[in-house]
Amino acid sequence: MDAVVWKYRKYVWSSALADLRHRFSGSVAGYLWNVFVPLAQLAVYALIFGILFSNSGMDEGPKGPFAFILFLCSGLLAWNAFAETLMRSTASFVGNAGYLKKLPLPEQIFIAQEACGGFLTAAISIGIFLIFAAAIAHDGPYVQWLQAIPLLALFLGFAYGLGLVFACLHVFFRDVQPFLNVVVLLWMWLTPVVYRETILSNAQHPHPVIMRLLQLNPAYHYVAGFHDSLWLGHWVAWQRWVICIGITLAVNLVGMWVLRHFRSEIRDVL
Amino acid sequence: MTQTDRQPIVSVRNLTKRFKCYTTPAARLVEWLSLGGIQKHSLFTALDDISLSVRKGEFFGIVGPNGSGKSTLLKILTGVLMPTSGSYEITGRVTSLLELGTGFNPELTGRENLINSGRLLGFNERETLSRMDRIIDFAELGEQINLPIKYYSTGMVVRLAFSLFAHVQPDVFIVDEALSVGDVGFSRKCFERLDQMREAGCTLLFCSHDLPAVRKYCDHAMFLFQGKCAYLGSAAEATDIYVEAMSPGGKAHRLGVADQDAERAEHRAAAELHGSMPDALSTVFEIADFDRVATVSKGRVGTGAVRIVAVRTTDASDRPRSTFNVGDRMRCHILSLAYDDADQATVSCQLVNRMGVGAWGTNHALRTGQTTPVRRGRWLHAVFDVKLDIAFDTYAIDVGWGDASGKGHVFDRITAAASVTVSPGTHLDFIGMARLDCESEVTEYGGAAAGLAKDPVGAAER
Known about the structure:
Chain A has 270 residues and is mainly α.
């Protein structure tokens, strides 16, 4: 995201890997937990929405017994990576106070480390999901799936930018992370991640106000991009790319400004 | 020395650091929400107008009590904290032992950690790798280098960290009180390495409570007190002034005390005692000696039957002195006043080193087998004449009066009533805690030719 992080790229990458490796250290399954936890969560969602509520509302996309789970995974895996990266980033300055108090490191590398870790986990779980889609649900493979890679990078770039802001605030007010936890949960339900946006209004005649409000939710554009590419196998419209890139860049500029503004005081407070 | 060698490599100009202190996070929120309209913080000045300059290859010491701003200064020079005003300039690469082991991940092996820390500290990776063997060798870790460092002892981690830092050849090396962690052998090795680094042109900023080390290794030193530079000059001078100022009731204790009335009352009481003491002792005790003992309550226990009013260390001819060389004779004078009668009392004196270890101590009854009868209203002047055959260090002097009849009452006991610094001097013919009385001899005999042929220890291979 910026030049300073590039200088520390090797450290960021190796510690993101080490962090994934050691997050569940001491457990027998080890690294597998990183993949197993999100997949288990998906299974629960699939069970509740797919079987209890049947595959209702799935008037688009692939049909069949896996219709809902295919939809669900295409958006939720990415959302989870986003939410987790955001939460972990927010706590990262406080969590790495030991380093920041003693080393003249650029603060943002700890957030970059979380974003890289999030990218790795999401890439693996999405990869597993796509193998499942192609092999068991007979959906794909499509070349359009590859769009998920830049989309994921942009989505986590968005989380990185927000993370810069909230990590700074969290240093001063430890309320930020628990507060954000609630906000992110609410945000997920305000974003059509586990449901189709069409259930908010009539699919043929979208409600203008609701659609306008959805456009104002920055996360919607990324999630919709994942739905387009992974679920429907479509090319993501160029307007959507422009919006996603724009949001990521804008949030990062704000984040970098906030960090620069508070950098000195953060070090004092930690 | 050429002209470029004399260039200052570290220069600090009028550096000031203030911290904003908020009583609660809510106070900060109020200030933010009012956009600074409501000021809720108080400012704490950690460093006040500090200027210094250190030349290439010079060892510079920073001494001062806890909270005097030493770490803040070093953190600013390392780049961890940013100054509030003023500026500093460092030419070349700075490495700081503040960072000792902080870059280490307990799950990674020693070797992995060396590479990882190298990355974290911005060292060139190839450089770290090429020096890997020497680093591991210096740390004396052997095969354990391939174990995760969570299995290391604290000392091992410190050794590993120091080795890494000492072998990446920084231009400026900042050491903050870290070298005392290793064992004696390693500690000495560290200082030897520092000497090598000095020869290679490395500049050292050394912040420590180990005053003899500061005197021995540093050319210049600064005595920081409450964020201000109290003295800047030769290392010997700076440590002397520091010891003097920090002894209980010393000059430093007079600074920044809020309750000036109580202060003045205490001073009057001390002055009164000073005025009424026996004339014969007026050359030994100064008013300052009363000031720092007579009215202190901190670190003091006892029934008060006898009260110690002044403590002073002097040389053999009773001239005040608080820095000695190993092997010198020190006279510790303890002046007391009896407030009650006691048939069997005794006076004690103990030297305690910086680690809190009692290096030596005795009491008069223990030494002579005779207790001292004490009568109300009498002055008691005790002298312990000690030959300082002891490790160079700074020692606190604990003094006391107590009952020697076996009831064990403490009449008065003061912890750290005075302090002395023992420097290596010319008698540095020993290592360890004590300079024991020792004779050594080596005798030579002929006829070893037959034994050499067998080479029992493989000396030839080495």
